[in-house]
Give the backbone structure.
Amino acid sequence: MKTILAVITDLLDSEKFIKYNVNLAEDMKFNLHLVYVQNPALYTLSTGTAASSSQPMDNEVDTVRLETERKNALKSVKEQVNKFQNDLPESISIEVSVDAGTVTMILNQYISDNKAEMAVLKGQDENDFWLADSTNIRVIQKINCPGWIIPSECNYQPFKKIIYATDYNEADIQTLKKLAALTKRSSPQITALHITESGNFKEKAMESGFREMLIKNSDYDRISVESIIDEKKGDDIGKLINEYAIDNEADLLVLLKENQGFIDKIFKPGTTRKVTREALKKAGIPVLVFKE
């Protein structure tokens, strides 16, 4: 069975995040692996000297404290998991671990070892995902699997209205096929939202049978095709997507990681970012970034 790897960042406030992932795993029929990542840089010896050297041990890791904190973290997470363990069917397991390193390094290690198929990160605040320099964005760009960003105050609900935003990419069909398979238990309405600089994209798409082609090749019939016009050519894409998601009561936004030019436009730094950030703060919907 496939595994969701969820990263816990706050031992004191992770119950809601754990519960979200328990529900997500149950809905998708995935096992769940919760990992708390320790940063070794926080456990260095800053004073004293080594017994065999007169040099300060400034860069030496305090392994005793690291191990003590590891055991405490493991105990803390397991205690919180026990509250939800009975919510899962017996066919789905929850594993807990504590690893030292960077989040990106730990995630990619599990992925390369075939111990996880997707990663879930908790948004550091309501709008963290949309900041071009956010930790979440840096991690998502570097991991070799689909990545979820879950807003900190988000409660899980089966996905009923999904927005797949793109400016068109050849991998869109395969991504939609994977998305439909991943969320099939809730039979969501998936909107392929194309961002265009032309006002007649939808008409052309309908005339060419674009929706029918998507349905045929994705083996899923609850797909619609919509478009919004990017009149400012990249300046307000994030704001446009967010407003569309709010107006249509979407509960999941999906992007394709390989469509890098489009993602760069969404997270374009500058004055627009402030506007986008404030608008997206109101939405608070999960984001799934697919890897082709």
Summary: The first helix runs from residue 15 to 28. The chain has a mean pLDDT of 79.
